[in-house]
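quick one, 424 residues, struct below
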Amino acid sequence: MRTRSLLKTNGFLVVALLLVASCRSQNSEPNKEPSQDPVSENTVILISIDGFRSDYVQKFEPPNISRLAHDGVTSEEGMIPIFPTLTFPLHYSMATGLYPQNHGIISNTMFDPRSGKWFRISDRESVEDPGWWEGEPIWVTAENQGMIAATFFFVGSETPVKGVQPTYWERFDASVPGNTRVDQVLAWLDLPIDERPEFIALYFGQVDGEGHANGPDAPEMAESVLEVDGYIGRLLEGLAARGIEDGVNVILVSDHGMSARSQSRVIALDDYMDMDEVDVINTSPVLMMNAKGNNASQIVEQLQGAHPELEVWMKRDVPERFHFRDHYRIPDIIGMVSEGWTIYRTREYMEENLSRLGGATHGYDPAALSMRALFVAHGPAFRENVKIEPFENIHLYALMAHILELDPAETDGSLDVLSPILKK
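---
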């Protein structure tokens, strides 16, 4: 394995565009001659823009993303995330085509009752522990079939899954500039044909961060969206300079959307139960708890109907549409608050921290329009000027495997869902 380190108003839009243009002009990618070894038309570049709500394209009109959406394929009503609508489960479902109950990454924070270990996305040791990761991500499928794959910060690629990692991968570092990430993708495409990846995944996180901090309607969100659009533009310019802009399949996605929070929409869990009776794994918006005794059903019965904006189920009774019952890591008790609501473990903690509650978050019901994710596809494999109905993100794996001409692993998704967007 080789590892390489590496507006709301038009006024806001104009300022943000100038800002992005300035950044790009100061650090522009030099023009490249077209490669003597043409890039395969099966090449896929999967780009995830974390937290990019599906309506941001219409709301902020990012020029490069808008052009790809207009000229290629898009779902204006967005891609439907799976449950729970959290970053790690969602990304890994896109990569594997599996619901979390079948790939094991059930949340951003998890407890494994068999090993006694905790998983936290901020903990490098757990993120890079292959014991957490099940299923077969698309880069493993590619590598196992003799294809070179590369990832720049994609969830699940920092550890061997089934003993396999991408040929090229990067350990997550949020401080790495977007231009640096794009330039590395272009550098991979400049490699000799026997070293060049045909599957590349790329990740940007600032739109999600801005959403959490200021919400989906803030002027800062417009700036963040246009900043990332500038990185997409840089990539497209680099592809054009190499004569391959129309010869590479670019798929733009996000994991989830965003919903604004409010200090008036809060629930203190200890108003309705004894917190000493449970081990809390996750709190809000998705509640996950294990009962310390054999009284999980009594706790659920106690919480059901306790607050009109809180739903709680036994693991075995989680709604079927969530596909969230069958993995041993799923805790005994699962709950979820209504869109825009927040759960605190205790009233004391809530009162101490309520003044800091603001911005937005995700984790709500996948059926909520505010949770809808971005989907745009453009390239030689895709039809032109096509708009499609919303679909679940588990179908992306089959789509990518088909374009890459790979034999797919068994998944929860189906190529039939997205085959109408393909030229052949």
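The longest strand covers residues 44-49.
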